[in-house]
Amino acid sequence: MSKHTVATRDAWLKARLELLEAEKALTRRSDELARQREALPWVKIDKPYRFETDEGSATLTDLFRGRSQLIVYHFMFGPDYTAGCPSCSAIADGFDGVAVHLANHDVTLMAVSRAPLAKLQAYKARMGWKFPWASADGSDFNFDFSVSFTEAQQRAGDIEYNFERAGHAMDMTPAPEPVVRFAASCGTDAPAYSRDRPGISTFVYEDGVVYHAYSTYARGVDGLWGMYQWLDRAPKGRNEKGIWWRRHDEYERR
Questions:
Q1: For residue 189, is it within any domain?
Q2: Cβ count within 10 A of residue 67
Q3: pLDDT 10s digits, 20-44
Q4: Model pTM?
């Protein structure tokens, strides 16, 4: 017999209507947060960043691909990795479906990582993805937008991520077990793995000028993690006991 509460249909409906009010309040609050994001001031980008793409060397302006808005997903794939971060990979599984809709609404979705382009291309082929992915190898881009850090910063404890200093699990010593496990799955060790972090940054191109509009990190990218939007509505919720997800081509290997 189920250990979960079992009720009559009338009792269920009463509880559901109470939850509905909370859901509506959250939706209204989310709408207000979206308006606040849109109202953030923009910062002019003056640095001439360079990237490597499937089409060749590119500027930040080129990444817009003729559109006025650019959303960059900072995908954890450092130069020492042999494969992309499993969590970023799970998030990126949803990119292809949405990218075409964004492209037809004046928004380009682009992943950016520090790994050399050849590594990104090989991994992208393995995963079967089509979305554009640029390499920032040799560029300050990832460092300037607080998703990559030097070994010297790491040793000095001088990492500021998610707008705070030393506040993330990847800054802990010794590294937590999930960080060690993910690092190994990327073919590297925990310190090298932790020198790259996930995030989203958005940019606007207007009157020949690129502006930075918004960035978010850590759990700020949760809304992009498609499987969790479904699990949060499943009967048992996330039902997690540690790290359970894999790259989508690895589940059958368990």
A1: yes
A2: 15
A3: 999 999 999 999 999 999 999 999 9
A4: 0.94
